[in-house]
Write a structure and sequence with these properties.
Layout: H1 6-15, E1 21-24, H2 39-47, E2 52-55, H3 61-71, E3 75-77, H4 88-98, H5 107-125, H6 127-142, H7 148-155, H8 161-186
Helix pairs in contact: 1-2, 3-4, 5-6, 5-8, 6-7
Length: 187
C-alpha cells in the first residue's frame, strides 16, 4: 500500500484511449486480505474524465450507495457478494433508486434460481465436471439458509446431476413448506 500506482496507470490508460476503468480497492499485495480502501478509487475518479467503476467489498445495498457517494464513481462492480446471491443486483438498484429495501426472495424463488443455475452448469460443463463445479455454487446458495451448511456436506457426496437436483428439490420443499406455514400462522 505504500507504493500505489493506480492514479498514474489510470492516466496512462485514459491517454491511450481507454473508454472506462474499473478500480479495485486493494493492491496486488493485499490479495483478498483486509478491507478494500476507497480513497485511491476516489482519487482516480477525481483525476480522469472517463467513467470509473469502483470495486471491492461491496456486499450490500447500503455499501454500494456509500461507495458511489464516497468515491463519486459512475458505477460499482459486484464480485464475491453475488456468489449464491445473484438477486443482489436488483436489491442494490432498488435501494439506490428508492432508499428502500426489497423484500428478501422467497425460498421458492431461490430454489428456482439455484436449480436453474445447476442445470446450466451441468449442461455447459457436462456430467463429470458440471457436478463438481455445481458443488461450490450450491454451497454459496445455501450458506445463509436454515440447515444449509449440513445439507451442503451431503451434496458433496452426490455423483450424479439428477441426484443433485432431486436433493435440492427435497431441501427447498422443506424450507418452502415451513415458510408457507409461518405465513399462514402470521395471517
Amino acid at each position: 500500500r505504500a507504493h500505489k500506482n493506480a492514479l498514474s496507470i489510470a492516466r496512462i490508460a485514459e491517454q491511450s484511449g481507454i473508454a472506462a476503468l474499473a478500480v479495485h480497492g486493494r493492491t496486488r499485495h493485499d490479495q483478498y486480505d483486509g478491507a478494500a480502501e476507497y480513497d485511491t478509487i476516489r482519487e482516480v475518479k477525481r483525476n480522469v474524465t472517463i467513467p470509473v467503476t469502483a470495486s471491492g467489498d461491496i456486499d450490500s445495498p447500503e455499501k454500494a450507495r456509500y461507495v458511489l457517494s464516497y468515491t463519486g464513481c459512475d458505477a460499482v462492480m459486484i464480485g464475491r457478494a453475488a456468489q449464491g446471491r445473484p438477486w443482489i443486483f436488483r436489491e442494490i438498484g432498488h435501494y439506490i433508486d428508492t432508499g428502500k429495501h426489497l423484500a428478501a426472495p422467497s425460498y421458492a424463488e431461490i430454489h428456482a434460481i439455484a436449480t436453474g443455475h445447476l442445470r446450466d452448469l451441468h449442461d455447459f460443463y457436462g456430467a463429470y465436471k458440471g457436478i463438481r463445479i455445481a458443488r461450490k455454487h450450491i454451497g454459496w446458495y445455501l450458506a445463509s439458509l436454515p440447515g444449509g451448511i449440513d445439507f451442503r456436506h451431503d451434496m458433496h457426496l452426490l455423483e450424479c446431476a439428477v441426484q443433485q437436483l432431486a436433493a435440492m428439490d427435497r431441501f427447498f420443499a422443506r424450507l418452502i413448506d415451513g415458510e408457507m406455514a409461518a405465513d399462514q400462522k402470521a395471517a
